Amino acid sequence: MAKFNYYDRIAQNYDQTRWLTEPIAEVVADFMVNLVEANPDTSLLEAGVGTGVNVLPLVKRGYAVTGIDVSQEMLNQFRQKLSEVPSNLNLICTDASQLDFPDWSFDVVLTVHMIHAVANWQRFLDEIIRVLKPNGFYLNAQCITPPARLEFENYFRAILAKYEAQDSQPEPKPIAKINIDIDQYFLNKGYQSNYLIAKEWKVSNTVRELLSFFKLRAYGFCWRVSEEIFEQAIAEFENFCIKQYGSLDIELSSTAKFEIWAYQRL
Predict the structure, then answer these.
(1) Where would one find the signal peptide in this protein (predicted)?
(2) What gap in Å lies between CA 225 and CA 231, rounded to an integer?
(3) For strand 106-112 and strand 89-93, is the pairing parallel, antiparallel, or unpaired?
(4) Which residues contact 18 (CB under 8 A, 6 or more apart)?
(5) Which domains are delineated in the chain?
(6) Spatial separation of the C-alpha atoms in residues 200 and 214, rounded to whole Å
(7) Three-state DSSP class for 134?
């Protein structure tokens, strides 16, 4: 039986349900290029590359980019953004726990909100150090959920939790988040760390739009119950939204951030 991979199921809807748009990704790419002092020969690996939104600007600028992801469907979405896959882009469908590359292969390794999904995070970080070139950069990044969207999500999580306890045949669950002290790991390995905010921007969605994202089951926590139970939870949540916000057409706006923890051994 094939291992459950909810990323395959949400690939077609992934970009539209997130808040990192292509224009914002361009600004973030500028920030990363300046941060690592990239030159035409700079090579980059993104583990958990997904649909490529983080590195597509770099690919278009001609940098050598390798992307790996456990979901073939996510990689297919990346490929569809290009008329053809250019020679400077290498996409590989594989588990990130083992990086099948020679030592000192990349100037930059990038991860964006993905280490919590790696089964053995310490082995993964060991592998990052192994494939980084001397003086290379590891950029551990994440998009911080806009507070209004996070509040909306938490309302649904509370409702979903009631149904999860009742579900006799739940869907396979995505890997649970675990406590990971990445900063301490790299400090112990002799790396210097630097925390930076690459970009802040306002994100706005109507309640109706956000509700539609949940109906698509576009997030990992939406797969914790069976489809039948999920539909019941969504129906209750829609009624809750009407009472809570007064209208599904109310717009929720708040600020998102793209954070980067940069590590380099000098």
Answers:
(1) none
(2) 10
(3) unpaired
(4) 53, 143
(5) 6-264 (3.40.50.150)
(6) 24
(7) strand
Angle at 99 between CA 90 and CA 8, to 5 degrees: 65
Q: Contact 126/97 with Cβ under 8 angstroms?
A: no
Long-range contacts of 215-218 (CB under 8 A, 24+ apart): 216/10, 216/13, 216/17, 217/9, 217/10, 218/10, 218/13, 218/14, 218/17
Record the pTM.
Answer: 0.92
Instruction: Give the separation between CA 6 and CA 73, rounded to whole angstroms.
Output: 10
Cα distance between residue 69 and residue 94, in whole Å: 6
Residue 201 pairs in a beta bridge with 256
> What would the pLDDT profile of 225-266 be if each residue is shown by its tens digit?
999 999 999 999 999 999 999 999 999 999 999 999 999 987
